[in-house]
Amino acid sequence: MNEKSFNIALCVNEVRAKRPLVHHLTNYVTVNDCANITLGIGGSPIMADDPREAADITGIASSLVINMGTLNERTVPSMILAGKAANEKGIPVIFDPVGAGASAYRNETAAQILDEVSISVLRGNISEIRYIAGLSASTKGVDAAEDDHTGLDETGQMAKRLAAKLDCTVAITGAVDVVSDGQRVICIENGHPMLSNLTGTGCMCSSLMGAYCGAAPGRILEAVTAALLSMGIAGEMAYEAAGSIGNGSFRVALLDTISHMSDQILAERGRFYEA
Amino acid sequence: MNEKSFNIALCVNEVRAKRPLVHHLTNYVTVNDCANITLGIGGSPIMADDPREAADITGIASSLVINMGTLNERTVPSMILAGKAANEKGIPVIFDPVGAGASAYRNETAAQILDEVSISVLRGNISEIRYIAGLSASTKGVDAAEDDHTGLDETGQMAKRLAAKLDCTVAITGAVDVVSDGQRVICIENGHPMLSNLTGTGCMCSSLMGAYCGAAPGRILEAVTAALLSMGIAGEMAYEAAGSIGNGSFRVALLDTISHMSDQILAERGRFYEA
Amino acid sequence: MNEKSFNIALCVNEVRAKRPLVHHLTNYVTVNDCANITLGIGGSPIMADDPREAADITGIASSLVINMGTLNERTVPSMILAGKAANEKGIPVIFDPVGAGASAYRNETAAQILDEVSISVLRGNISEIRYIAGLSASTKGVDAAEDDHTGLDETGQMAKRLAAKLDCTVAITGAVDVVSDGQRVICIENGHPMLSNLTGTGCMCSSLMGAYCGAAPGRILEAVTAALLSMGIAGEMAYEAAGSIGNGSFRVALLDTISHMSDQILAERGRFYEA
Questions:
Q1: A44 Cα to chain B: minimum distance (Å)
Q2: In angstroms, what separates the C-alpha of C260 from chain B's closest C-alpha?
Q3: Could you say which of C73, C105, C199 has the minimum Cβ distance to residue A45?
Q4: What is the DSSP string of chain C?
């Protein structure tokens, strides 16, 4: 890894210094954790999902997170309106296609968003991203299906092709996270299995991307990598703090760890490489 | 209690082995805790409440939880669509008539659901169940009214009659939980008063029933009893762990305890008898 | 401070004794914490935001909290219907104009509520209250803008004028909270900076006001002061308990501390004076 060309060391400092306002169009299941993790990393969260104000609020934001976790006839138009406003303003759009492949409505909504909004980042699990890529995908609701896990090489190539096709950065989260901007492929090894026993860790990861990209809109690949490192390291440190006590304590420890994430911790504990 | 005919000893293992997908049409107040308790007991939660996908998502689920905590014109039709899809697929439907008796809209919705959907389990507090049973009921919002508590014998007989009438299993939660499938009446003595100082413990209990019934759809009475034992024991153990610190710590400890619930703990700490 | 005319010493006891039902029309981001803090202080929360039942539920409540955190075409009419029902019944209405100034829709909604509903309490940060008062206000989403902080004297006079104009009690929360009923001005010095690193502490404060005002509807100024003291002291004690661990632990400790708030703690730790 060429450290000069891929310097993520200043990212947390930048978030905490700039305090980017991250507009979320997200689901009602994990929204509170998304708000608190955004605050924890140094951003400022706002959630406004009515078509009457979705574009207005995007107009004062530094980034936009569109999360498909719970959809309805009111919020889908808001996602499009906010997405277009973000494009017009030139701020990053993070798209989290939760449960893509699980229902016709989710599939149509994902297609509509990708058609009408220019996204900066696409983040999902392997099943969701395979579905978006037009590959065969199993699904088990909002979790990745076992069958969809293929080798890291194949996943990296898929991410690269999809990123080039969509002209964005693609992040596939899993035991090893894989990120590509269409040219480079980064693998992040941090993380902990407990993260899959807590609801919303994917959503929270997208919120972190909203905060990092809002602070560093000109360096999306670095920002996305820093978000994934933050989440992975926080998962490890939360497990070290809360042990295997359960997902109640793990959630608390995860938010605590993000509150104290620093460039030093990212540098010391981050395990990533360019594939 | 005839242990041969009423074996709940294997239930947690079955949930953790089968990882049932539990579709929730539930309220936005306690939904996050419902998701985390479902994960904690070994299930996989999904929430999709738009009529465009409620039936589709039910189609990939192992059970359906319909919780009336917050209702609106969009989610009530989704409850009916999802309920019918669940009936067609033959998966268990758990109905939690939160606040039945508190408004005309809740009353009409409860009647419509019971009319159009075949439910497997009805779970509520004494005021809600008395309302559903057509008995005089006081109500104080979503909590049971003092006046509605009658003796255990009377409650058991009421549960039995209502279960026979609705052709389902009826669970009335309170200081002592009472369950009946219309033939047998089971009383569960586990629990702790702190459970009523935390929002959503009733909702979480219904989610646990979704997970257990999703894993053991052919043994609903056992599954419902195991869910009630799990919640009651978790309440006791959470109090032992967090003491009387407050409802913040109690919530964390409750989720932690559910994450470690085991057949052994159920067998050792469960206090229930056939009335 | 004349203790005879301004006795807040019995307030927590009254909440715990009367267990007021607090109806919330609030946002989906922080609603769970609002419910748990209402339970923690001794009230009983209920959330019902459909126009079909908003007035019915208000009819069984002791107070109404209208929180603009997330608005939509369904909930705004519910806020008006519930507000009018509360006025008819004569129970206190607490209005929290979250994000007023941040979008045309929020501004119009705030104006409509103030036009059609008689409110008892208006609670917001300095930016929101300045917007409502028709003064120039900056805004950064749902947080107060730095530019809007003026001296305490000026803030107190503004609160007093606005309270007289709206015929209600105005509470401006910040490093020092300022309350006025149009005649007197009370300053509350309790609080901790960590409160702004946790989402929903403003909303939770409004919920506490709902509980206190529901228990003591004839003494709104005292009830609002007690709510602000409770939140401020809880912030201090939560920090003492959880230290700077992070916003996960701080949230838990905050709810725990509210669960144990007592008239004695309010008397011993409360730092407030009449300006």
A1: 21
A2: 7
A3: C199
A4: --TTTS--TTHHHHHHHH--EEEEE--SSSHHHHHHHHHHHT-EEEE---TTTHHHHHTT-SEEEEE-SS--TTHHHHHHHHHHHHHHHT--EEEE-TTTTS-HHHHHHHHHHHHHS--SEEEEEHHHHHHHTT-----BTTBPPGGG---HHHHHHHHHHHHHHHTSEEEEESSSEEEESSS-EEEE----GGGGGSTTHHHHHHHHHHHHHHH-TT-HHHHHHHHHHHHHHHHHHHHHHHTTS-HHHHHHHHHHHHHT--HHHHHHH--EEE-
Asked if residue A120 belongs to a domain, the reply is yes
**Inter-chain residue contact B53 with A105, CB threshold 8 Å:** yes
Q: What is the CATH number of the domain that holds C81?
A: 3.40.1190.20
Domain for residue B196, yes or no? yes
The shortest CB-CB distance from A21 to any of C32, C69, C141 is to C141
Put simply, the answer to whether A259 touches C247 (Cβ < 8 Å) is yes
A50, A68, A73, A245, best to mutate vs chain B, most B CBs in 10 Å: A245
Cβ within 8 Å, pair C57-B141: yes
Per-residue pLDDT of chain A (275 residues; tens, 9 = 90+): 444 446 666 789 999 999 999 999 999 999 999 999 999 999 999 999 999 999 999 999 999 999 999 999 999 999 999 999 999 999 999 999 999 999 999 999 999 999 999 999 999 999 999 999 997 666 667 777 766 777 889 999 999 999 999 999 999 999 999 999 999 999 999 999 999 999 999 999 999 999 999 999 999 999 999 999 999 999 999 999 987 889 999 999 999 999 999 999 999 999 999 98
Q: Closest-CA residue in chain C for A31?
A: C29
| Cβ contacts from A onto C, under 8 A | 103
DSSP result, chain A: --TTT---TTHHHHHHHH--EEEEE--SSSHHHHHHHHHHHT-EEEE---TTTHHHHHTT-SEEEEE-SS--TTHHHHHHHHHHHHHHHT--EEEE-TTTTS-HHHHHHHHHHHHHS--SEEEEEHHHHHHHTTS----BTTBPPGGG---HHHHHHHHHHHHHHHTSEEEEESSSEEEESSS-EEEE----GGGGGSTTHHHHHHHHHHHHHHH-TT-HHHHHHHHHHHHHHHHHHHHHHHTTS-HHHHHHHHHHHHHT--HHHHHHH--EEE-
**Domain of residue C51, residue span:** 11-274
Chain C residues close to B102, C-beta within 8 Å: 46, 48, 56-57, 60
What pTM does this model have? 0.95
Provide, as residue numbers in chain A, all residues whose Cβ is less than 8 Å from the Cβ of C146. Answer: none
**Chain A residues in contact with C99 (beta carbon < 8 A):** 46, 48
Instruction: Determine the 3-state secondary structure of B251 from DSSP.
Output: helix
C117 is written with which tokens?
């509903």
- Residue contact A35–C199, C-beta within 8 A: yes
Distance (Å) from the C-alpha of residue B254 to the closest C-alpha of chain A? 7
Instruction: With CB atoms and an 8 Å threshold, state whether C259 touches B248.
Output: yes
Q: How many distinct structural domains can be found in chain A?
A: 1
Q: Which chains have 3 or more CB–CB distances shorter than 8 Å to chain C?
A: A, B
Domain assignment of residue C65, yes or no: yes
Neighbours of chain B (3+ CB pairs under 8 A): A, C
Q: Is residue A263 part of a domain?
A: yes
Rounded to two decimals, the ipTM of the complex is: 0.94
Contact call for B198 and C48, based on CB within 8 A: no
